[in-house]
Automatic annotation (TrEMBL):
The gene is MBL2_2. GO terms for molecular function: carbohydrate binding. Residues 1-82 form the C-type lectin domain. Pfam families: Lectin_C (PF00059). It comes from Halocaridina rubra. The keyword Disulfide bond applies. InterPro entries: C-type_lectin-like, C-type_lectin-like/link_sf, C-type_lectin_CS, CLec_Tetranectin-domain, CTDL_fold. It comes from the Eukaryota. One of its GO terms (cellular component) is extracellular space. This is Galactose binding. The keyword Endoplasmic reticulum does not apply. The lineage of its organism: Eukaryota, Metazoa, Ecdysozoa, Arthropoda, Crustacea.
């Protein structure tokens, strides 16, 4: 998740209410990183009282209210994956 536009695109494409967005702070509390790249997240869009789960909630969902909430990583939600356009090229 890099910006507000990407945040909106995910909401508009999602057929379900809340989705995992592959952001976590499992390695260091309140150091939110992209779970795939390990890079720090520069854009955030937390709900008013979030993040509030401490070490019990280390993963992030994007809600239909367009805000982020931290949740236990063991919770079950749909997820969003990002793919590069080159992965769709014709063979």
């Amino acid at each position: 998740m890099q910006n507000a536009e990407e945040n909106e695109n995910i909401i508009s494409m999602s057929p379900v209410n809340d989705v995992w967005i592959l952001v976590e702070d499992s390695a260091a509390e309140n150091q939110w990183v992209n779970k795939v790249t390990g890079q720090s997240v520069n854009y955030t869009n937390w709900n008013a009282v979030e993040p509030n789960g401490g070490t019990n909630e280390n993963c992030v969902i994007l809600t239909q209210s367009r805000k982020w909430e931290d949740y236990p990583c063991s919770a079950r939600f749909s997820y969003v994956c990002e793919r590069s356009l080159s992965s769709f090229k014709d063979d």
